[in-house]
Amino acid sequence: MTTATKGDVTLRWLCFGALGWAVLVLQAGGFTTSIHAGMAFLDWPLSNGSVNPPGWLTEIDKFAEHSHRLAAAGLGLLCLAIAWTHAAREPRRIPRLAAYAVLVLVVAQGLLGGFRVMLDQLNVGGEGNFKALAFAVTHGVNAQLTIALLAALATSHLGTWREATGGSDRLRSAARAALLATFAVIVAGALMRQSRSTMWVVEPTITGLFIPSAGEGAAWWFNLLHRSGAILAGLLVLRFAYGLAREGRRGLALAVTALLTLQTVLGVLGLKLPLNPHVRTIHVVTAAALLSTLAAATLLVHRREGALRDA
After folding, report:
1. What is the DSSP string of 105-163?
2. Lowest mean pLDDT: which of 109-113, 184-188, 301-305?
3. For a FRET experiment, which of 79, 201, 285, 293 has its CA 20 to 30 Å from that of 26?
4. 246 C-beta neighbours (distance < 10 Å), count
């Protein structure tokens, strides 16, 4: 295998290292949301005016929020290194632009988290909390997009990418449908989590798993769209996995199917165990793993031989 085929090992490991760290940041953020600790500190970017606030190692809400902030700061530094090293070492234009985009998304993620805190009802007063909720939802969705883009960038440094020949038109269409449907379900899930409608009672029937039995208004629709939309998204993901297997990509098909199965089980457990924050947190992390795998797979099946020589 030639050096060109192998790619830059430093860039590859830097991207995969940042990807792994980003998952830890997501886990910390997801757990913070699951235990409703997002406002453990009323200031930002410091926590009670300090990088080592009293009580953050002994009080679970403060630990969750402050560890999330510290981990996010570390991710920002990693993404700055990714952008700099790609500017210096990566000859391909599209991966360089993707590296810059990752940095932009991470900076935006920090600002979104800050606005979520500073515009919260506890800081600004008032009767509603729409602004903070909007920033919280965007913060959650942007986290998923950041990890997916990091995964796509890391994929571009694999020999698998450099040797890929793409897939059929039918497979590419299935890939796009699965990716977009999964992202839509994630958006609905973020709306559902931030509106705190995840603890509604589930009726002991099959339909009770997908149709909320309590609640009203927009929050009821968020819940319905996330639960029922997951059915459509799951079918589209399975269709894509079947297409991957038919075209000889059985390993990738198995990975997609396994992540979908795990995500489905976690979703049902989350409804059955509404007071368990760990199940809901792992559900969020697995969603990111599924979306990222779908994003990487979609890029692979869209690669045409010779068409993306410099990409």
Report:
1. HHHHHHHHHHHHHHTSHHHH-SS--HHHHHHHHHHHHHHHHHHHHHHHHHHTTSHHHHH
2. 301-305
3. 201
4. 14
pLDDT digits (tens, 9 = 90+) for 172-184: 999 999 999 999 9
Is residue 104 in some structural domain? yes
Query: How do residues 127-149 score in pLDDT, each as one tens digit?
Result: 888 899 999 999 999 999 999 99
- pTM summary value: 0.90
User: Torsion over CA of 23, 97, 169 and 238, rounded to 10 degrees?
Assistant: 10
Do 190 and 255 share a domain, yes or no?
Answer: yes
Q: Helix or strand or coil: residue 1?
A: coil
Could you give the angle at the alpha carbon of 28 between the alpha carbons of 73 and 153, nearest 5°? 60
Instruction: Looking at the chain, list the stretches that DSSP marks H as alpha helix, in order from N- to C-terminal side.
Output: 3-6, 9-34, 60-89, 93-118, 121-124, 130-155, 159-163, 169-194, 217-246, 250-272, 277-302
How far apart are alpha carbons 90 and 175 in whole angstroms?
A: 27
d(CA 31, CA 180): 25
Domain that holds residue 111: 8-157
Q: Indicate the DSSP class of residue 207.
A: G
Contact 44, 117 (CB under 8 A): yes
Q: Total structural domains in the chain? A: 2
Length of the chain, in residues: 311
In a domain, 1, yes or no: no
Backbone φ, ψ for residue 2 (5° rounding): -75, 165
**Of 8, 4, 1, 2, whose CA–CA distance to 89 is shortest?**
8
Which residue, among 98, 102, 185, has the nearest Cα to 141 in the 3D structure? 185
Q: Tokens for 46?
A: 């410091």
Per the structure block, which two tokens stand in for 250? Answer: 């059985």
